[in-house]
Amino acid sequence: MSVATTVRDEAVTLSAAMREGSRAEHEAAEGSTFMSELLEGKLDIQAHTDLLLRLRRVYAALETAIARHSSDPLIAPIHDSALERLAAIDADLAHWAPGVDPAGVDSPAAAAYVAQIEQADWAGLLLAHHYTRYLGDLSGGQIIGRILRRTYDVPEDRGTAFYEFTEIPKPKLFKDSYRAALDGLGLSPEQVGRVVDEVRVVFGLNQALFDELGGQIERYRAA
User: Fold this and answer.
1) d(CA 177, CA 90)
2) Maximum Cα–Cα distance across the chain
3) Residue 1's pLDDT band (boundaries 50, 70, 90)?
4) 3-state secondary structure of 43
5) Euclidean distance between CA atoms 91 and 98, whole angstroms
6) Which among 201, 159, 221, 223 has a CA at the least distance from the CA of 33?
7) Measuring CA to CA, which residue among 143, 137, 129 is closest to residue 174?
8) Which helix (H) or strand (E) holds 73?
9) Neighbours of 153 (CB within 10 A)
10) Residue 26 contacts by C-beta under 8 Å, 6 or more apart in sequence?
11) b/e map of 1-37 (b: 16 or more CB within 10 Å)?
């Protein structure tokens, strides 16, 4: 059943609805075999590079769309350049895959993800993408970065910029402020439902990226 048909209590905050309404999809993405094996050091670093090449296309589409709607009342309160990841991904790819064009990577999963962002016809849908990607990056990304550096002996000053938020020294305070901004948007229960449904879609698209890479996991097996 669509969350849009079940969210009716106006006391339910947007941030809580987004979190609780997508819990199953979130847990499924976190339990990805591909990510588990990558972080356990069972795959070579090319696996991480191929993930970054796909994410580069996703963030290019997302940050273009957010910039286009930055003055929209639903986007302006949460829009913050400190969250943007595109330049960081480019820095990492310059280290791991110099000269490789992400647009030339054959990835139906990345293409579907980009299409979902580009076809958003309401800023609330972009809000769902913004929340799911950036708060996920800020919550777990720094941990992933540390694991990757330790597991693959990556130097501190290169290769993991994607996971570092140098302009956000206190992530918890930032996330609390972000959630408060979400809760102050004043969406109707029906609009909250639409946003939550899109959050669930975004987690599914992210899972599809992991599944696509997992489909060629034997190629990444570390010697």
Assistant:
1) 28
2) 54
3) very low
4) strand
5) 10
6) 221
7) 137
8) none
9) 8
10) 203
11) eebbeebeeeebbbbebbbebbeebbeebeebebbeb
Two tokens, residue 75: 């986007």
As a whole number, mean pLDDT of residues 155-166 equals 90
The mean pLDDT value of the chain amounts to 92
* Percent of the chain scoring above 70 in pLDDT: 94
User: Domains of the chain: which residue ranges?
Assistant: 3-220
The pTM of this model reads 0.92
d(CA 220, CA 223): 9
**Which pLDDT score, from 0 to 100, does residue 55 have?**
98
Q: How confident is the model over 154-182, as a mean pLDDT?
A: 93
42 contacts: CB under 8 Å, gap ≥ 6:
221, 222
Copy the structure tokens of residue 123.
Answer: 């800023």
Q: Mind listing the pLDDT tens digit for each residue in 62-104?
A: 999 999 999 999 999 999 999 999 999 999 999 999 999 999 9
Four-residue CA torsion sign, 18, 112, 33, 85: negative
* Alpha-helical runs (H) found in the chain: 14-21, 23-30, 33-39, 45-68, 86-96, 108-118, 123-130, 136, 142-152, 171-183, 189-214
Which CATH code fits 3-220?
Answer: 1.20.910.10
